[in-house]
Amino acid sequence: MLPKVRDYMSMPVVVVSPSDSLAHARNLMLKHKINRLVVTDDERVVGILTSTDFLKVLRYPELARKAFDELLVRDIMNEDPIVVEENVNIVDVARIMLERGISTLPVVDNSKRLVGIVTKTDLTRAYADVGGGRVKVSEVMDRSPPTVTPFHSLYRIVEAIEEKPYYKVVVVDGEVPVGVIAKRDLVFLDTSRLTRDLKFVKRDALLPKGRTGGVRLYYVPLALDIMSSPPVTTTEKVDLAEAARIMVERGIGCLPVINEEGNLVGLVTKNEVIRVLASLL
């Protein structure tokens, strides 16, 4: 018998309202170490806000010009999300996620009251429990994941991270993976992690009204400033359920796949786990 949503859903749920600022929403995500918030209005589920949605702010100039405390949750949230009940089995939830291209489903009871949330991480944990012995990493991994070098700039990273639906980039030195950058690393960039001591240089410049003075010219972060390093890796022969277990236990969303020489040959993410889970009978 397949496990139900109630067996793996996360709770309690952290919520925001449509009128809350993105600064407040971002702080909640950082505080609780989560990547999504359920948006409620008068106790009704009206939206979902994920770390992926914050990339819209980076992508669109009309949003990027504004401060996070000037933007509201309703400006970028996903409206009218699909909800599921506690007794739905996890395979059906995986199929819904794949069909709709979503990573989160609010869970409601018979009275439509919010009682939990089920995410790709929850389903990955479920597959780690029930999927052993079915599929090897080599059968499902992405053999051409997006890559950047340690010295690619933030602009190239944003471009590369949107090439695949899992929003991950592998940082390589030659063919060897030396780090991973996920969407969360961009949305919640911690400048204290920047590897260079100098964050800016001072230069004389012409100021308004014909005055001159010193201005700060800030460096653009590079991949080596942002990446999580060293990456946790796996090999093609590993059981996918074991790879799923590692991702859940280490709190990561992907594993670069390496060969015997340590070179990158692919990437396995929670997306591949969900796809296999959705195929279970």
UniProtKB/TrEMBL annotation:
Q: Where is the CBS domain?
A: 9-65, 77-137, 141-198, 227-281
Name the UniProt key words of this record, in alphabetical order. Answer: CBS domain
RNA-binding: present as a keyword of the record? Answer: no
Any one Pfam family match given in the protein's UniProt record, by short name: CBS
Q: What is the protein name for this chain?
A: CBS domain-containing protein
Species in which this protein is naturally found: Fervidicoccus fontis
